[in-house]
Amino acid sequence: MNLLATFRIALNALRVNMLRSMLTMLGIIIGVAAVITMIAVGAGAQARIQEQIKSLGSNLMIIMPGSTTASGVRLGAGANQNLTEDDALAIAREIQQVQAAAPSMRSSAQLIAAGSNWSTQINGVTPDYFEVREWPLASGRMFEANELSGSAKVVILGQTVADQLFGDIDPVDQILRIKNVPHTVIGVLARKGQSMTGQDQDDVAMVPLSTARNRLFGSTQGKLRRVGTIQVKVREGADMKEAEEGIRQLLRQRQRTQPGADDAFTIRNLTEILATQEESSRIMTILLAAVASVSLLVGGIGIMNIMLVSVTERTREIGLRMAVGARGRDILTQFLVEAITLSLIGGFIGIVLGVAGSFLVSQFAGWATRLSPESIVLAVGFSAAIGIFFGFYPAHKASKLLPIQALRYE
User: Are 235 and 59 in contact (CB under 8 A)?
Assistant: First the structure.
């Protein structure tokens, strides 16, 4: 008997007991749908984290003044303003793994332009900031050297601020007021989207660091060249840990920190933090898929159970087929094909429900999902494997029946 004929017989046998076949496939259907949905949710979460890493910039470290603990006292990072613009210059000059170091300071202020006003974050930066954050311009130009040294009243806007203040009007060359000081818009940044904390990164305005210090944030900080943070981009392929340790030792020397004393600054390796989050998300996806796979196991046991019942019910049929010439391997193939057909049909229905479930999760729960062909191929392969594994014993049992005993079976 060829395989096509065996498959046709298997379909007929399943059609005779349609309700029982559907109930048998239920475990496979639920298991496959759950696995596909869980993998899609996990892949969506990983993609979201990768987008956040990309939006922050690659190989990024942030240095903040103050330490989380000092002399047994817990302090907030940024509590002690002891980083300067010269520290950033020293890091870029002396640490060979560092590609760029960008000092910055920030505050918030009301921006007024064209009859509109918008409260946003004002960042005082240098052009290195845009290189570190990998943040290109959508239109306009970058700060020029004389603007950086001369505290020029120029500003580069994020997309959200540009939209809120100017709408459909091109913001470049327009005038706006920051703390009642008129500034000329010279550029608009490309859209960045939300940060990992859900903050709109485009709701920001950039001014030269000297402008922020001398015109907007107060003169005391200007004399000391103090900055709020230093953001560092490490060269591609360089060891992040080695760069971090080099920066730590350099800053301790510059701040004359005594051996054994706590650092007076905090270094946060964002790439490492986000990579850890990505790994956690991946492990959670595997865990959820493993839990969902339990349904597949239960479904496989259901298939074995129903196939054993089928063998018992069709014992006389098996005996009759053997009496007219069917061999043991023909009987083995027939029942094995029935089991595989059951699991494959259940797998295909599960795939449809899994795709629909992923879509519904994305639409109603607002979670990012991403379907991958690999998860669907894995689900189909797993379904076939379950059919073979759990269907083999009943099929083997049927193939070993003796024709005379089978024909006498009541």
Answer: yes
Q: What is the pTM of this model?
A: 0.62
* 381 half-sphere exposure, CB direction, 13 A CA radius: 6
Q: Are 386 and 343 in contact (CB under 8 A)?
A: yes
Pairing outcome for strands 181-189 and 154-157: parallel
Quickly list DSSP for 140-178: E-PPPHHHHHTT--EEEE-HHHHHHHHTTS--TT-EEEE
Count how many residues are written for the chain. 410
Joined together, the tokens standing for residue 311 give 């063998």
The string of DSSP codes covering 216-271 is IS-HHHHHHTB-SEEEEEEPTTS-HHHHHHHHHHHHHHHTTPPTTSPPSEEEEEHH
pLDDT along the chain (410 residues), means of 10: 73 79 83 84 78 71 74 50 86 91 90 86 92 90 90 92 89 90 93 76 92 78 74 87 90 86 83 72 76 76 83 82 81 84 86 88 78 78 80 83 72
Amino acid at 394: P
